[in-house]
Amino acid sequence: MNTTIAHITFRGMLGRRRALLLFLLPGILLLLAVALKATGNDTQDSGAAILWTFGLAVLLPLLSLIAGTGVIGPEIDDGQIMYVLTKPISRSSVILTKYLCAVALVAVFAVLPVWLAGAIVLGPSSDLPLSFAVGAFLGGLAYCAVFTALAVATRQAVTVGLIYALVWESLVGNFAPGTQTLSIQQWALSIVDRLSSSSLINATVGLPLSVVLLVLVTAAALALATTRLRTLTLTSAD
User: Fold this and answer.
1) What range does the domain containing 195 cover?
2) pLDDT tens-place string over residues 11-20
3) Confidence at residue 173, expressed as pLDDT on a 0 to 100 scale
4) Can you tell me where the transmembrane regions are (predicted)?
5) In this predicted structure, what is the pLDDT of residue 225?
6) pLDDT above 90: residue 178
7) How far apart are the first and last CA of the chain?
8) Per the structure, how many domains does the chain have?
């Protein structure tokens, strides 16, 4: 990991307007949690529902999309990435640094709020908050890798990412259950299902397959991003 690139990346991410979404989305989740607690609707059902339908299905993929594309996409669009690529830094180091920055942002702005929201609604006795936080973190690893690769591969990364997260995972997945095998959200949910003792969580993809797919997709996406970044250098040089 290159600390200089990481510093520039964090400064750029937190200084852009899109950074407002990093605070807005988790803020909505926490407000919902506080509202449920204040109105006496802090049941297992409501807690699981808010962590699943908003935390895992909306907050996590959207924050991962913002972070994964934001750490490198704007630099490619405006040509600033070439200043980095002309330095004696390996392309794999650039991608790994950008990826870890995205993961750190997701951990702070998605995983932590998911745990905190669950703790507010369900209290310390429930294992759901930690289960969802672990699932969100592991799912975020794959999401960030995929969206970082998309940002290197295409300038329509945000559009493609939204189609995957909101159309494929949420819409198509509900009407065609077989497609859930190709859903990062479902892979993360299988981890939540295993860690939690709650009968309210029922994953449609088995844990062994989910773990294998999470690892394979993350590794393949990072490899693709590195390869595409090398190609980007050659194309620009021509």
Assistant:
1) 3-237
2) 888 876 767 8
3) 54
4) 47-72, 99-122, 128-150, 157-176, 205-225
5) 93
6) no
7) 28
8) 1
Residue 83 exposure: Cα atoms within 13 Å on the Cβ side = 9
What pTM value is reported for the model?
Answer: 0.90
Question: One-letter amino acid identity for 208?
Answer: P
- On whether the CB atoms of residues 225 and 154 are closer than 8 A, the answer is no
Of the CA atoms within 13 Å of residue 165, those in its CB half-sphere come to: 27
The answer to whether 161 touches 170, Cβ cutoff 8 Å, is: no
Which tokens belong to 100? 């870890």
Task: Produce one character per residue of 102-126: b if its CB has 16 or more CB atoms within 10 Å, e if not.
Answer: bbbbbbebbbebbbbbbbbbbeeeb
pLDDT of the residue at 170: 73
List the single range of 28-42, 60-74, 95-109, 195-209 with lowest mean pLDDT.
195-209
Name the residue among 187, 108, 92, 106 with its Cα closest to residue 149: 92
Q: Of 106, 107, 126, which is closest to residue 118 (Cα–Cα)? A: 126
CA distances from 81 to 75, 139, 152, 208, 209 (A): 5, 27, 11, 38, 36
The CA angle 11-104-50, to the nearest 5 degrees, is 120
The tokens of 98 are what? 């950008």
- CA–CA distance, 197 with 9 (Å, rounded to integer): 39
Predicted pLDDT of residue 9 = 84
For residues 202 and 194, give the distance between their C-alpha atoms in angstroms, rounded to a whole number. 9
The structure tokens listed for 27 are: 């803020």
Mark out the alpha helices in 39-90 (DSSP H runs): 44-49, 60-70, 73-77, 81-85
Within 13 Å and on the Cβ side, how many CA atoms surround 62? 20
